[in-house]
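Rather than argue in generalities, we have chosen a single entry, letters for residues, whole numbers for local backbone shapes, without further comment.
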Amino acid sequence: QVQLVESGGGLVQAGASLRLSCVASGYIFSNYAMGWFRQAPGKEREFVAGIVAPIWGSAVNTNYGDSVKGRATISRDVAKNTLYLEINSLKPDDTAVYYCATSHQMFATTMTSDYAYWGQGTQVTVSS
């Protein structure tokens, strides 16, 4: 079965940087786009970042939500079946549960419905 396991969350201070990891198993990792979403209390699940499937064979294409654009970097290590998310200059508004997800296809879209599998999430709390 497909499994996605996030790690790297925790309590950090505003202005710091954080790196999240997601280890995938149970499918051909390189065939599908992946993304990061987050959900804060009382809010809808929000797109954070996406990355195209490695088999696309062209320049790496990434996509970022407006709330983290310029502060976040998404990457993946195919050999390790691992997806990463780095966020710099963290703000209290970045506090949320962060979810790793695998898309239905090769393009990194922004809709939750486009993603087939989800991890259980990792909590990120940014203090002021």
